[in-house]
Predict the structure.
Amino acid sequence: MSAHTPGLRDERLCWLAVEDKLRRRSMRGTGFFIGLSSLVRSADVAFGAPDTVRGFASAKMRKYAVAVDIVAMRLNSQERDVLRATGEVPEWFLDEVLAEARKVKLR
């Protein structure tokens, strides 16, 4: 990512910087169920795990999105300048997002 991202808010730039890592984290521990559901589905037996897995990962991603917005407000002006120029967040950012996500309550 470069400085050629006109009109994007810092919160959005932060999300773009960490989204892939967070998506991988949201799917941790679900591989067994996805593999098992594929096996069961191939035998034409209704299992339902894919929706459960997707729902779980989706809820985690929503929590992460809220946390990214909250943590983005903690960036100082120098960190914001680096974010806008390079598309990268500070080293501490992802750990703070994960900690904040644990506090997020979804309705």
Remarks:
- Residues 36-49 have pLDDT under 50 and may be disordered.
- The chain has one domain: 10-103.
